[in-house]
Task: inverse folding
C-alpha cells in the first residue's frame, strides 16, 4: 500500500452538498447545509456552496471525526483471547503472549486495527505499544491521524538511550502533519521515578506530550501510597512532571484533591469505561466533577484485547451508562460524552479540529440516515441517536485532513486485500493460545 | 404489506452450505458445516448436506436467533426524546407524551421497531404496551416471533372486561404458531392486588404467561414494604401468583430470599441492564447468584425510549460490563450472556429453539465474517467476538421459522418503503415535543 500523501492534496476541493444534518459541535446542529473543503481544511459552511468534487449528502449526518484518545492498536491481535480475570491477572496472561510478538506482527495487526477504527469513524488515536515504529509505518499507510511514540523503560534510560530514541522517532514523523510523537511511560509501578522525570524532560525539550496509565486499580493506589506515602497523582506532582502536556489514561480511582492538582496543572485525562468495566477495575471515575472542574477529559477504547471493541459510538454510550449507574443520577448525558470523544480529543492532540468550522482540519464522518437505528431522526434527537444508538457500522465515509480515507463501498475489497494478513496473524495467535 | 405465511412454508427446503462457524449453543461451536431446514424446522446438521435453496455460508457465522425478552416496541417513536431524569421522573414525561398516541401510530412505530429488531438478528420479542392488537397486526406482517397481549388495569378488571379482553386477543393470534398471548400487568404500584390475581387466574385458565415490571427502583421497594410489609417478590408470592409462567422484568433491586422464592416457583427474570443504567435505577441485580440458583434469566433491551438501542449484541456486552463493575469480579462472561439472550429467551417463550439442533425451530442469524470488528476470528474467539464486539449491523440475514424475514440487501428498499411512515411518525413527535 502506498503512503497517503501529505502535500499533493493541498489544492483539492470537495463540497459536501446538502448535508441532512451537520453536528458542528455538542451544541450546534444545522440542517440542509453544505461544507466546503479545500486541501486539508474546512473553508466554508453554508448554503449554495459548490466546487471541486461534490458529494451528495442528502442522506447523511456529518459530524467531526472521533478521537480514540487511549488505545494499543496492535493489541487487535488479542481480541477475544483473554476475557477473564481482573486487570493484574489479565495482564500476566497478556504479557506472556506479548513475548511472541514480532515487529512484523505489530505492523500487520495495528494496521488492521486502524482500518477498523477508520471504518468506525475514528479519525485519530493516541497509542502506546511495543515497536512503535511499526505502528507508525501503518499510520503512514492508512492515512489516519495519530499520536504515538517510544515507550521509555528504566533500561533505556539507564543505558542513556532515551533521547536518541525520541529524536529518532521524531525524525521518522517528519513531513506528516497528521502524526505527532508522544513519549509513553507504561505506569508508575513499572518504572523508577528517574524514568518518569526523564520522559518529562524530553517532552519539554522537544515540545511533546507524555502519555501514561495512571490509577487504574486499587492495588496500584495501595502500592503507591505504601511506597511513597502519596496517591498516584500527588506523587506525579511531587516529581514535578504534571503539566498541560500530560495525558493520564484511565484514572479510575482518584481523589478530589488529585483532580484539583490535575486542574491546576492543566493536564488531560482519558476515560476508558468499557475496558475498566470488563477488567473489573471497579473505580468510580468522577466524570461530572472532572468536567465541572474544567479538566479536559477525553475518551478511549483502550486496546481490543480488553474492550474488545474499537467503536467509540459504543464507548460514548457506555460512559454515560457507567456514570449513571455508579452515581445514581442522570447528570451525565449525550452532550458531555460527544464533547469528550470529539472536541476534547482534538484538544489533547492540540489540533484545530473536533468542531465543524472554518479553518479547522477537515476530519469528518458521514453516517447513513437510512439505518433504522438512527431513526426516528430530527434535529432534536440527532445527537442522542449518535450517542445512544449509533454504532461504527453506520459510517458511510471517514475523512482525515480532507481526504476520504474510508468509504464503506471498499469494505469487501478491504477484507479481501487482508486475507493473507489475517492468516499470518492467525498463525501467530495459534502459537500464543 | 402482506401477512407472512404460516402454512405455505411447510415443505420448503433450505440448506445453509459450508457455514464458516455454527454457534450451536453457548458451548458447542462447529466449523465448515451445513444446516438443513425443512419448513419451519432445522432437520439436519452435518457435512455434505444439500437440497432446496442452497445458501453459500462460507463467509458467515450462524447462530440461533436472539430473543429480546422485554421491550415496548412502539416506544420506538420516543427514541432520543427523553434522555434525562431518573425512572419515575422520566416516566412522568413519557406518560404525558403517550396521551398523544393513536392506535395507528402504535401500529406504525412498532412495525419499524420490528424491522429494526429483525435487522439486528432478533427473532422474537416479549412486548407490553397500549393498543396491543396494533402491535399484533405488525407482528403478523413482519414475520417476527412475539409474545404480547393486553395490559390489565384496575379499570378493566372492575368492569369485568378482563376475560373478554384476553379471549379476544387469543382469538386474533389463531393460526400463528409464532405468536403467543401474554397477560401484561404494568407494575405493583399501578394496580390493585385483585388485578394481579385476576391476571394470574386468566393465565392459568388459558395457559398463558404473565409479564410484569417488578422491583425496578428503590422507591418501588420502599412503597411496597411500607404498604404491605413485604418486599415485592415476597408480596407477589403472598398473592399466590408466582409460578413458572411468571416473567419478572428488571428486578434491579432484589434480596437473596426473594431469589429463593423465584427459584422455588420456577419463574423467569428478564434483566435489562442498559435501560436500568440509563435511567439511573442503580440496582445491583445479582446475576451470578441468580444463574447459580438455576433461575431462568433472559435479557431485554426495554423500549427504545429508554435504551435507546434495540441491539441485543450490545445488550449482552453491557450485561457483562455492569456485573463486572458492580461486583468487582469477572465471574460473568460471554457464555452466560449468550445463553441468557438466546437459550433462556426461548425457554421463556416455551419454544424449542435457541440451540441449533434437529427439530428445533429454524430461527437463525447470519453474521458477516468480513466485518473487521469480528476479526481476528477462530473457533476459539467466535463467541467472544459475538458478545464483546458484534453489533446489529453485522447481520447478513435473519430467519424466523425457516423463512428469511430480513436480508441486508433489502436495507435501502426497507428505508425507502417507510419514508411516508417516518413522516407521519415525525408529525406525531412534533406534537409531543
Result:
Amino acid at each position: 500500500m502506498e503512503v497517503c500523501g501529505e502535500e499533493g492534496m493541498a489544492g483539492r476541493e470537495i463540497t459536501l452538498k446538502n448535508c441532512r444534518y451537520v453536528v458542528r459541535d455538542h451544541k450546534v446542529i444545522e440542517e440542509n447545509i453544505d461544507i466546503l473543503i479545500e486541501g486539508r481544511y474546512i473553508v466554508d459552511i453554508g448554503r449554495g456552496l459548490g466546487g471541486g468534487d461534490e458529494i451528495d449528502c442528502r442522506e447523511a449526518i456529518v459530524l467531526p471525526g472521533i478521537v480514540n484518545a487511549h488505545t494499543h492498536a496492535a493489541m487487535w491481535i488479542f481480541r477475544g483471547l483473554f476475557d477473564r480475570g481482573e486487570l493484574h491477572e489479565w495482564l500476566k496472561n497478556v504479557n506472556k503472549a506479548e513475548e511472541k510478538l514480532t515487529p512484523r506482527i505489530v505492523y500487520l495487526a495495528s494496521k488492521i486495527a486502524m482500518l477498523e477504527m477508520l471504518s468506525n469513524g475514528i479519525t485519530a488515536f493516541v497509542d502506546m505499544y511495543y515497536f512503535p515504529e511499526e505502528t507508525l509505518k501503518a499510520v503512514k499507510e492508512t492515512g489516519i491521524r495519530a499520536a504515538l511514540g517510544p515507550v521509555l523503560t528504566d533500561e533505556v534510560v539507564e543505558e542513556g538511550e532515551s533521547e536518541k530514541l525520541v529524536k529518532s522517532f521524531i525524525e521518522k514523523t517528519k513531513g506528516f502533519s497528521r502524526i505527532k510523537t508522544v513519549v509513553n511511560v507504561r505506569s508508575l509501578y513499572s518504572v523508577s521515578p528517574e524514568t518518569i522525570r526523564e520522559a518529562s524532560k524530553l517532552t519539554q525539550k522537544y515540545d511533546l506530550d507524555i502519555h501514561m496509565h495512571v490509577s487504574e486499580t486499587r492495588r496500584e493506589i495501595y502500592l503507591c501510597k505504601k511506597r511513597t506515602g502519596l496517591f498516584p497523582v500527588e506523587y506525579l506532582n511531587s516529581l514535578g512532571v504534571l503539566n498541560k502536556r500530560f495525558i493520564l489514561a484511565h484514572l479510575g480511582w482518584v481523589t478530589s484533591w488529585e483532580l484539583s492538582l490535575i486542574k491546576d496543572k492543566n493536564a488531560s485525562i482519558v476515560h476508558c469505561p468499557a475496558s475498566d468495566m470488563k477488567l473489573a477495575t471497579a473505580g468510580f471515575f468522577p466524570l461530572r466533577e472532572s468536567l465541572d472542574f474544567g479538566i479536559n477529559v477525553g475518551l478511549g477504547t483502550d486496546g481490543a484485547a480488553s474492550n474488545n471493541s474499537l467503536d467509540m459510538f459504543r464507548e460514548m454510550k457506555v460512559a454515560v451508562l457507567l456514570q449513571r449507574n455508579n452515581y445514581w443520577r442522570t447528570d451525565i448525558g449525550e452532550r458531555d460524552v460527544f464533547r469528550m470523544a470529539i472536541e476534547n480529543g482534538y484538544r489533547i492532540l492540540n489540533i484545530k479540529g473536533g468542531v465543524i468550522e472554518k479553518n479547522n482540519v477537515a476530519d469528518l464522518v458521514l453516517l447513513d440516515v437510512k439505518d433504522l437505528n438512527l431513526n426516528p431522526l430530527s434535529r432534536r434527537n440527532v445527537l442522542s441517536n449518535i450517542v445512544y444508538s449509533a454504532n461504527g457500522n453506520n459510517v458511510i465515509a471517514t475523512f482525515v485532513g480532507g481526504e476520504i480515507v474510508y468509504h464503506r463501498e471498499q469494505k469487501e475489497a478491504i477484507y479481501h486485500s487482508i486475507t493473507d494478513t489475517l492468516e499470518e496473524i492467525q498463525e501467530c495467535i495459534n502459537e500464543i493460545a
Notes: The radius of gyration of chain B is 21 Å. Chain B touches chain A through 70 residues (CB under 8 Å). Residues 13-64+356-414 of chain B form a domain with the Urease, subunit C; domain 1 fold (CATH 2.30.40.10).
